[in-house]
Design the sequence.
């Protein structure tokens, strides 16, 4: 092997390890790929930076803006009140309607923010209709994946494969190129969930009692400060509560006045009643050392009390790629930044009560927190952004429906689709024009345009595109394609296509879907060239296989998002998804050559 091929191979191996282990964020991995390949001279600086100006990256960036604009109108949340009665009357019909709706919307709007918006909606629907959210959230994630396969703008993976094709001299994919196979997957996937999948889904019903779910009843209590207590006259931050016992003071009752989430410089007086969060050992320490009276039944976490007062208790789910990943609440300055007190953390399927500020958080972890009610609106608005650090499981703070803005956004999206579908203008130009219209109509601001773009994905796409160029330039794609065709050539192109689909699908389950597509798309192009066949069937196989991730919660971001919200275990995804993966593999093998002929 040549020097360039060795470098590219090492970069691929390194990227695979980093994507699978998530030691570094995906955007940093994308940058490292680009820098490594340009610094070693495998590709030129111009080729390395070309990913940022590639039509695929531009389209993905402005599709994030269109997605944000639609979510901002509050239109998608309005379906919740309609779905509840349907599920209550006929669960099967409710599942079918939900999946068709989510699949349709996901075909034209990025599916990640849609799932983020619909998780609390579906949890609410489940509670209203008497069904466990675990019966609803995997179908929600899968439906968004099905829909994303149908158009080039449904998911960034499709645009990435199209961008790699353009870099290799192939025309940019039409908007509905993947629609034939995508629609088959939508129908078959929905039927599978409708007939079989729902029976395989777990039924982990949540009573809605957060104290029971998080085991909080023994860890929330109230103490009354006696005259002789050692921390009378001290600020909270200077008292033994904070300096030695690391106890969070959630509320202070003084005579007839309540001080919720008091600041650290709040001075404690005799007779104050402190609502605190702590473990049993700290309660014992308080009893042994301090002059306090306990009322262990004073605070009960029930639905009525959660909804009353000027604080609310809610769950925050850490999203994939969140700034909270790999950091603790202390490092994120959680209490001061959000004026919130953590009560418990659901971490690695275990509830953690002690040393909450020091727990290293992962995607899918759930923080049970008490927060000022007036901050819920800001949290819900932040949740709509592509860079939202968490999903808010709360019915409060829902964005009001703005009919005028909804009609404007809907018109823009329809216009983008029509302009692209009839080849009046290219997809990136159409999305750019759509963004300009939204800003000029004051539907969104330029600041919101900047904030709505998921730059992590853009950097990842730029790195992935540079890797595709490097694989072609170095000849590594030729070597891999020769091995693939040499081993399977006797069985014909259908078997080669089937093998390519299977490899891509398995790789997607353990790493980023975009990363899998970036590695296999150049090989697909070279394989087609070796066989002197059309590249389209092979690229379509890679494109849909990279999105068809159903067996693990880590293969696709929407799966990760519903993982904790539905109280799933890792094996739940495998039990439901393995048959769907096999079914799609068989369908792809049989139908892709029909819809996209080899010649």
Sequence:
């Amino acid at each position: 092997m040549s020097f360039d091929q060795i470098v590219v191979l090492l970069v691929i191996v390194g990227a695979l390890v980093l994507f699978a282990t998530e030691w570094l964020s995906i955007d940093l991995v994308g940058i490292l790929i680009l820098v490594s390949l340009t610094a070693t001279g495998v590709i030129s600086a111009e080729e390395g930076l070309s990913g940022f100006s590639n039509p695929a990256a531009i389209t993905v960036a402005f599709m994030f803006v269109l997605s944000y604009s639609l979510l901002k109108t509050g239109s998608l949340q309005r379906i919740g009140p309609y779905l509840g009665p349907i599920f209550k009357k006929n669960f099967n019909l409710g599942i079918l309607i939900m999946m068709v709706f989510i699949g349709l919307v996901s075909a034209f709007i990025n599916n990640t923010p849609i799932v983020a918006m619909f998780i609390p909606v579906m949890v609410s629907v489940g509670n209203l209709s008497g069904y466990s959210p675990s019966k609803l959230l995997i179908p929600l994630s899968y439906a968004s994946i099905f829909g994303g396969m149908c158009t080039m703008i449904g998911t960034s993976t499709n645009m990435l494969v199209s961008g790699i094709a353009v870099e290799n001299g192939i025309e940019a994919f039409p908007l509905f190129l993947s629609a034939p196979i995508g629609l088959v997957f939508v129908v078959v996937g929905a039927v599978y969930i409708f007939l079989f999948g729902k029976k395989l889904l777990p039924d982990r019903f949540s009573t809605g009692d957060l104290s029971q779910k998080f085991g909080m009843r023994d860890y929330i209590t109230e103490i009354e400060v006696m005259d002789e207590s050692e921390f009378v006259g001290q600020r909270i931050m200077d008292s033994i509560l904070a300096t030695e016992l690391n106890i969070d003071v959630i509320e202070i009752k003084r005579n007839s006045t309540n001080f919720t989430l008091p600041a650290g410089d709040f001075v404690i007086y005799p007779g104050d009643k402190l609502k605190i969060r702590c473990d049993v050992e700290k309660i014992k320490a308080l009893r042994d050392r301090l002059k306090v009276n306990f009322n262990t039944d004073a605070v009960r976490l029930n639905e009525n009390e959660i909804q009353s007062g000027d604080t609310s208790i809610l769950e925050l789910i850490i999203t994939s790629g969140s700034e909270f990943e790999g950091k603790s609440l202390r490092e994120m300055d959680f209490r001061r930044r959000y004026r919130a007190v953590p009560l418990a953390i659901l971490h690695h399927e275990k509830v953690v009560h002690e040393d909450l500020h020091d727990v290293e958080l992962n995607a899918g972890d759930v923080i049970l927190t008490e927060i000022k009610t007036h901050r819920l609106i800001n949290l819900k608005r932040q949740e709509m952004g592509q860079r939202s650090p968490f999903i808010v499981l709360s019915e409060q703070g829902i964005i009001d429906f703005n009919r005028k803005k909804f009609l404007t956004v809907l018109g823009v999206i329809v216009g983008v689709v029509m302009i692209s579908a009839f080849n009046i203008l290219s997809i990136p130009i159409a999305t750019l024009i759509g963004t300009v219209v939204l800003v000029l109509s004051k539907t969104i601001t330029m600041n919101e345009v900047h904030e709505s773009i998921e730059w992590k994905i853009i950097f990842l796409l730029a790195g992935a595109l540079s890797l595709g160029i490097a694989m072609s330039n170095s000849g590594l794609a030729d070597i891999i394609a020769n091995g693939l065709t040499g081993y399977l050539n006797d069985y014909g192109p259908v078997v080669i296509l089937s093998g390519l689909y299977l490899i891509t699908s398995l790789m997607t389950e353990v790493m980023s879907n975009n990363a899998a597509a970036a590695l296999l798309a150049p090989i697909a192009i070279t394989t087609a060239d070796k066989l002197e066949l059309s590249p389209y069937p092979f690229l379509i196989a890679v494109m849909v296989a990279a999105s068809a991730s159903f067996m693990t919660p880590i293969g696709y971001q929407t799966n990760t998002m519903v993982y904790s919200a539905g109280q799933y275990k890792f094996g739940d995804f495998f039990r439901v998804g393995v048959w769907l993966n096999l079914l799609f593999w068989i369908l792809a093998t049989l139908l892709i050559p029909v819809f996209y002929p080899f010649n």
User: Anything to note?
Assistant: Residues 570-595 form the longest helix (26 residues).
